[in-house]
Amino acid sequence: MDVEEFRIRGKEMVDYICTYMTTLRTRRVTPSVEPGYLRAALPSDAPYHPDDWDDVMNDVENKIMPGVTHWQHPRFHAYFPAGNGYPSILGDMLSAGIGCIGFSWASTGLDYKSMSTVLQKFEITKGSASECVLVSMLAARANGIKRLKHQFPTVDEGLLLSKLIAYCSKEAHSCVEKAAMICFVKLRILQPDENGSLRGETLKEAMEEDEEAGHVPFFVSITLGTTSCCSFDNLPEIGPVVRKFPCVWLHVDAAYAGSAFLCPEHKHHLAGVEYADSFNTNPNKLMLTSFDCSLLWVTNRYLLTSALVVDPLYLQHCYDHTAIDYRHWGVPLSRRFRSLKLWFMLRSYGISGLQKYVRRHCELAKYFENLVKKDDRFEVCNQVKLGLVCFRLVGGPDETPEQVDEMNKKLLTNINASGKIHMVPANVRERFVIRFCVVHQHATREDIEIAWDIITDFATELLEGPDK
Ligand code: PLP
Fold first, then answer.
1. If one looks up domain 355-464 in CATH, what number appears?
2. Which superfamily is assigned to 3-82 in CATH?
3. Which residue has the least CA distance to atom 12 on ligand 1?
């Protein structure tokens, strides 16, 4: 493809995206094909001679699209939103066009500008929340080992590592467990209260008990807006507990909820954040910015970079001591120019536009919650604070909790198999619940009512039989 063909195909691609977005409702929200269908549909080898672009795009529409789960579909209510505001799509396009590999200061200036100046909080854009948690734990681990080495200079680092222990709640995202696996450290998973919130006292007891047993607490990860039920760990209680222990790193994972804090009415969830050593949020969830885009903020960047600096001659430059090189802030050397799309979003929507989106998202969740509450066959199972509602069929007085779980599993399976709407399950207080999240960027009350009608039709069929 030469530049003149790119000029034409690029415009066609924008048209294709626009048509996709405006006709999305006519597609099935989830694929009707089975995993592996593409093996038969496409040749197994790359073509030796170049294919015609029209043939490539025909295959996209006829072979690839049938296997796609349409996250931006108005009937998609699973997981959390995945932003795709148009300015951010343009940002990704420009980033690919510039094609720089942003590991040194020269290509990361906007990261700093958009994070520190525009948002006045964040320090770096990353690919995912999981990476933010991992990098924070790596920094905490290096810091913990350094401290122990100072105390016990003759003891082997491997032995010191075996003493370290991290903490999170049972409601924390699985990325904390994965980070602990990668860091090769122990992780103690604690029980939250009945609202899914980890409490200071629970953490304190666990840390004291572990210290007594010879372990060394070094990292606590708490969540604001958990994945299962959007609960909030009690940061104002946890912060002072963590500070009682020497050199324990407190990380705050607000992957989904963080963008809501752009609205003053949600800022109270940030109480206690002054105790945090690091904080992450994903604009690619609730800030309409296309995947991937996570923000990581750290109070002491030297603690982070001292865990990750490797500085070969071929990467050094004359601004080494004056400019920020984000290659020292994470695992990969090369970085995409992600801040561009976030900057485009901030410039194009303004904070007011993003607040408007967040508010509508939350208002529609409340609307759905009220619909559930009006139907006494159902119950709401979480405190609806942002855009996620967990609900389930209550079941009859003679049914065991296990039977009620089975009934709800059946309900969700039937709904998802129909392809009419898509939702996913979660465990809340050890029970099977259905998660309904407001995801579509332009969702309306009508979309919520359509979803509720589909859910209640399937519930009626399940409870009363297909003919009633
Ligand atoms: N933390 C929380 C609270 C999440 O909800 C999620 C994903 O939904 C993650 C972390 C992981 O996010 P990522 O896919 O960006 O790694």
1. 3.90.1150.10
2. dopa decarboxylase, N-terminal domain (1.20.1340.10)
3. 129
How far does residue 396's CA lie from ligand 1's centre (Å)?
A: 35
Q: Using one digit for the tens of pLDDT, what is the confidence trace for 363-422? A: 999 999 999 999 999 999 999 999 999 999 999 889 999 999 999 999 999 999 999 999
pLDDT per residue as tens digits for the range 17-47: 999 999 999 999 998 888 888 888 888 889 9
Q: Which of 15, 24, 18 is nearest to 68 (CA)?
A: 24
How far apart, in Å, do the first and last CA atoms of the chain sit?
A: 60
Whether residue 227 has its Cβ less than 6 Å from ligand 1: yes
- Asked if residue 284 has its Cβ within 6 Å of ligand 1, the reply is no
ipTM score for this prediction: 0.97
User: Domain 100-337, what fold?
Assistant: Aspartate Aminotransferase; domain 2 (3.40.640)
Q: What is the dihedral angle through the alpha carbons of 153, 157, 162, 164, rounded to the nearest 10 degrees?
A: 70
Q: For the whole prediction, is pTM greater than 0.80?
A: yes
CA of 358 to the centre of ligand 1 (A): 18
| Ligand 1 atom at minimum distance from 223 CA | 3
**CA 303 to CA 287: how far, in whole Å?**
29
